[in-house]
Amino acid sequence: MRILVVGGGGREHALCWAIAASPLCTKLICAPGNAGIAEVAQCIEVPAEDVDGQVALTIAEKVDFVVVGPEGPLVAGLADKLSKVGVKVFGPSAQAAQLEGSKGFTKDLCRRHGIATAAYERFADLDKAIAYIRSRPAPIVIKADGLAAGKGVVVAETEGQAIGAVRDMLANNRFGAAGASVVVEEFLEGEEASLFALCDGEHTLALAGAQDHKRALDGDKGPNTGGMGAYSPAPILDQPMVERAMREIVLPTVKAMKADGIPYKGVLYAGLMIGKSGPKLIEYNCRFGDPECQVLMMRLKSDILPALVACADGSLGHFDLRWSDDAALTVVMAAKGYPDSYRRGSEIRGLAEAGKIRGVQIFHAGTKADGKRILANGGRVLNIAAIAPTVEEARAHAYRAVDLIDWPDGFCRRDIAWRAVGGRP
What we know:
- By secondary structure, the chain is α+β, with helices and mostly antiparallel strands.
- It folds into four domains: 2-91, Rossmann fold; 125-180, Dna Ligase, domain 1, CATH 3.30.1490; 191-318, ATP-grasp fold, B domain (D-amino Acid Aminotransferase, Chain A, domain 1, 2-Layer Sandwich); 327-411, Alpha-Beta Complex (Glycinamide Ribonucleotide Synthetase, Chain A, domain 4), CATH 3.90.600.10.
- Helix content is 30%, strand content 28%.
- The chain has helices spanning 10-20, 51-60, 71-75, 78-84, 98-101, 103-113, 126-134, 159-171, 239-259, 292-299, 304-313, 351-354, 391-404, and strands spanning 2-7, 27-32, 42-43, 65-68, 88-90, 120-123, 140-144, 153-156, 182-186, 191-200, 204-206, 211-212, 215-217, 221-224, 229-232, 265-275, 278-285, 327-335, 347-348, 360-364, 367-370, 373-376, 380-388, 410-411.
- The strands form six sheets. Strands 12, 15, 18, 20, 23 and 24 form a six-stranded antiparallel beta sheet that branches. Strands 3-2-1-4-5 form a five-stranded parallel beta sheet, with helices on both faces.
- Strand 10 (191-200) and strand 11 form a beta hairpin.
- Helix 7 runs antiparallel to helix 8 (159-171).
- The longest helix has 21 residues, at 239-259.
- It is globular, with a radius of gyration of 20 Å.
């Protein structure tokens, strides 16, 4: 098969790395790709968000199957347009992608179908939002309704912070159209975890669980980011908890979407808060998590490509996947200043040496090649992943590789997987 992977981040590098190993893949293209992806696929400069450009590329390259990495093109209807020209695609329709594209859509679906989630209300009117905030206890969570690149969530510790956040979104237009309406919801106590399930519109297949680290700095401090590291398996997501979350959250969602005439095909990523009363849904994403995808691909022993195709074909009911018993961990190296302003173009050295560490795989996120030099070209720039028999060993290998990378303009958290290794380092 001739395969196109849409996107150019760490998630897409991990997907390309896994797909390139499939005997079914005869040609692998990634658009736009990055410096690391170029080692396993042909990279073609078409932006992921250029839906028409991606369709034109698919036709020109006689692509048989498209794997869409990021959420933006899915929400914009890339899967629909590919289907119209007769190309199979891994990823939901624009309507189904509303599960990520509109937090209000998802919250309303949960309310209608009794799916456990935080209590909430939706607002487009600033005064009504402020009145609601004043009627609720802090901390309280403010979310932009639409896509905001992982930055549209504010966990407000005080009433004043919450009011400032909704004013930022509704009055000051901080996130543009994505923040034209907001969800104000209760703060959930517990431990966060990420559960992924492949879906073909009717059948589901739970994947290995993972846990990521959203805050920018050690000790879960600093602003929310797209993710600063992840590990799998996550102790909190043991098999009984996975089965419960699938039964109480994921399966009712897939059933509800089918009943509403918008079957969900692709990967469904449930961000969960696991507390004393069990799992509750924080949010859905309509694509693989980043950086969780990186640790999942490290642990996956089966060929990923047939499973992705089965999601498009509606034949997932006959599938199972094999996973390594080893633990995988990834550390995100980001440009100083991320998730706010940061500088592009600094040179990164030492990658070859770091990649020689046992069990280590370096996935590129925001990089570009300049001759033989590798330059930073984004906020999250590298994912230093490792696999080993224990989380402790994987973490030691990953940080040993991090320390061999010469990039003064970068930073990373030093406490990835602290929950799994018995406390903070």
